[in-house]
Amino acid sequence: MRRSSVSLAFPPFTGAVRTLVIINGAIYFLLLLMQATGQGHLAGELKGWLALVPERVLFHWRFYELVTYGFAHETFSHIFFNMLSLWMFGSMLEQAFGSRKFLEFYFFGIIGAAIGTIIISYTFGSVLHAKPYIGTVGASGGIYAIFMAVAMLFGNQEVFLFPLPFRIKLKYMVAILALIALASALGDSGGTANAAHLSGLVFGWIYIKFVPRRGLGFAFSEGYYGIRNGYHRWKRRRAAKKFQVYMRKHQHDPKQYFDEYGNFKPPDDKDKDRGPGGWVN
C-alpha cells in the first residue's frame, strides 16, 4: 500500500493579501524607525491615534478607529504571527473569493470585531476583561474571521498546526483556537484582545452564512433596487386609485382601464385599422 505524501509549500503571495501584509509591515517599521530616531513619544501618539478605544468611538465619534486599529501592532511576534496567518489562510480565501470580495470580507471582519469589542466592553466587560477605556490594536479580528471562513469552506482540509508535528483538519484547528480565545478572555490573558478574536469568529460566520455569494455590494444593490421598485409600484397604485375616483365622478367604469392588480390597460381602439398582422411600426 502506498502512503500519501505530504507536500510542504507556501501559498501564493499576491493580490490583496500581499497588499495588506505590506501596509501592516510598513506601519510597524515606520513606528520602529520613529522610536529608533528618538521620536518614541510621537510614535506612541500615532499608535494611540490608530488604536480602537470604545469610549472614544461612542462619545467622540472617532469611527475611523473601527478600521485603523487593524493596522497597528505592539510587538514583532504580534505582527509576525498575524501576517503569517493572513498569508497562509487568507491566500486560500482570496483564491476562492477573488481579490475584491476577499478585501470586502477582511474589512467586514475587522469592523465586525471592533463593533463586537465595543459591545462586549459595555456589556460583559467585567466577565471577559474588556474595558471601554482600554485601546485595542492588531489585525487579529480580521484574521480570526478568516479562520472561521476557511473552517466553514475547507473544514476537512488538513494543515500542520505549528509547532505540533502532525496534521489537523481546519475545522478542528479553528475550534481549538476559539476555545483558547474564550478561555483566555475569561482568564484575562495579560492584555490580549480576546474580545476581538471572539468577535472576529462571529462576524466571519455571519458573512459566510448570510451574505450572498456575490458579496455585500450585490446585496446592497439588490436591496436598493428592491426598495426603489417597490416605491414606484406604490406610486402607480396610488395614481391608479386617484384615477379611478376621477372616472367614477365622471360616470365611467374604471374596469375598462385597469385590471384587477391596478395596472393600466388601454381600451381597444376599434376605429384604428391594425392591418392583417396587428400593429405595424
Would you give an account of this structure?
With 281 residues, the chain is mostly helical. It has two domains: 15-211, Up-down Bundle (Rhomboid-like fold), CATH 1.20.1540; 225-271, no CATH class. It is built from eleven helices and two strands. It has helices spanning 15-36, 40-50, 54-60, 65-68, 76-97, 99-123, 125-128, 140-153, 170-187, 194-210, 216-249, and strands spanning 158-160, 167-169. Strands 1-2 form a two-stranded antiparallel ribbon. α5 (76-97) runs parallel beside α8 (140-153), α6 (99-123) packs across α8 and α6 (99-123) crosses α10 (194-210). The longest helix has 34 residues, at 216-249. The model is unreliable at 1-7 and 269-281 (pLDDT under 50).
Q: What secondary-structure arrangement, pairings included, does this model have?
A:
Layout lengths: L14 H22 L3 H11 L3 H7 L4 H4 L7 H22 L1 H25 L1 H4 L11 H14 L4 E3 L6 E3 H18 L6 H17 L5 H34 L32
Helix pairs in contact: 1-2, 1-5, 5-6, 5-8, 6-8, 6-10, 8-9, 8-10, 9-10
Write down the CATH class of the largest domain: Mainly Alpha
Radius of gyration, taken over Cα atoms and rounded to an integer in Å: 29 Å
Distance between the terminal alpha carbons, to the nearest Å?
76 Å
Sheet having the most strands: 2 strands, antiparallel
SSE ordering: HHHHHHHHEEHHH
> Which overall shape is indicated by the principal axes computed on the Cα atoms?
elongated
Mean of all residue-level pLDDT scores: 83
User: What share of residues is helical?
Assistant: 55-70%
Strand content: under 5%
* Structural class by secondary-structure content: mainly alpha
**SS summary, helix count:** 11
Spatial order of the strands forming the largest sheet: 1-2
Low-pLDDT residue spans: 1-7, 269-281
How many distinct domains? 2
Strand tally is 2
Name of the CATH homologous superfamily of the largest domain:
Rhomboid-like
CATH topology of the largest domain: Rhomboid-like fold
CATH architect. name of the largest domain: Up-down Bundle
